[in-house]
Design brief:
about 300 residues, alpha+beta, Barwin-like endoglucanases, six-stranded mixed beta barrel
């Protein structure tokens, strides 16, 4: 029994050594994610390599370096990063301050901002380059930079179920269908003649050279473009029928605006123009309390 303590001591030493080992470095991953609630509003993430939006930007309120972002990266307020409610992560986003004309690219790697009236949250350094200080907001236009974002989607590991490639779906029988469509089915005939949709870059190999993924830490490059400050509106929804749009507009105190060519018009509901950010925030809150959860602030 005298020697029985040696295995226990050895195990204790091994455990101590294991406890001193450095923690594994978090590996970034590609993700879209599932619906979630933040700031009392539900968001529905989706993959979108052509997204362009206007709205209000804020500075990420949590300045702590070292925390994990939604896709497993390490947050650094000195890097050019951002948070968006619905974009795939990571993605490269071009952000233009419409009030100053300053423009830079950021890596979207987190969810947010918590305030549903803000279209994007910027790291401290990204905000500085665009002339935005903590506690302030700025009118911005954001646009996904397509090719680098596709390269990230194709090159990073993902824990989500693989998406079905459109090119693998059986289409021969449908494309060769030559029966006359029933009355009112002209649209179906046009669909049969349409070209197959391109395979998403993340669903498999693409022809030609693969685009180069951007570095994890983006370089600080700032462009200056003409400043284009606009007016603030709250936009709620777009309808295919004017009467439905008018019903919602009457309920929230908005107006109806027709868009599109005559005969194929749709009708969007807006409130504004609004004189200040505070007024826009109040209008957005009233609209959401009226049950219009998809309302957002935009700049035009």
């Amino acid at each position: 029994m005298a020697g029985s303590g040696r295995p226990i001591l050895a195990l204790a030493l091994l455990a101590g050594l294991a406890g001193c080992a450095p923690a594994p470095t978090p590996q970034p991953r590609y993700m879209v994610g599932t619906p979630y609630e933040l700031g009392g509003v539900w968001s529905y993430p989706r993959e979108d390599f052509g997204l362009v939006q206007t709205g209000l930007a804020s500075v990420i309120a949590d300045p702590r370096a070292g925390r994990r972002t939604a896709n497993g990266e390490i947050y650094d307020p000195a890097a050019l990063t951002a948070a968006h409610r619905t974009l795939q992560l990571p993605a490269i986003l071009r952000v233009t301050n419409l009030q100053t004309g300053l423009e830079t690219e950021v890596r979207v790697n987190d969810r947010g901002p918590p305030d549903p009236g803000r279209v994007v949250g910027l790291s401290r350094r990204a905000a500085e380059l665009l002339g935005l200080r903590p506690g302030q907001v700025a009118q911005v236009r954001i646009a996904v930079v397509t090719e680098p974002s596709r390269a990230l989607a194709a090159g990073l590991p993902s824990e989500e179920a693989p998406r079905l490639a459109v090119a693998t779906a059986p289409v021969g029988a449908v494309q060769r269908e030559d029966l006359a469509p029933p009355p009112g089915a002209a649209q179906a005939g046009r669909l049969r003649e349409a070209r197959p949709l391109p395979m998403p870059a993340s669903a498999g190999a693409v022809e030609g050279a693969a685009p180069t993924a951007p570095p994890a830490r983006l370089p600080e490059r700032v462009n200056r473009v003409p400043a284009q400050p606009g007016r603030l509106y709250v936009e709620t929804a777009t309808f295919g029928r004017r009467d439905l749009a008018q019903q919602q507009a009457a309920r929230i105190g908005g107006f109806v605006e027709a868009i599109g060519p005559r005969g194929r018009q749709s009708f969007r509901v807006r409130i504004g123009p609004l004189a200040s950010v505070a007024e826009a925030d109040r209008a957005l809150e009233r609209t959401r309390r009226a049950g219009v959860s998809e309302a957002r602030i935009l700049v035009e």
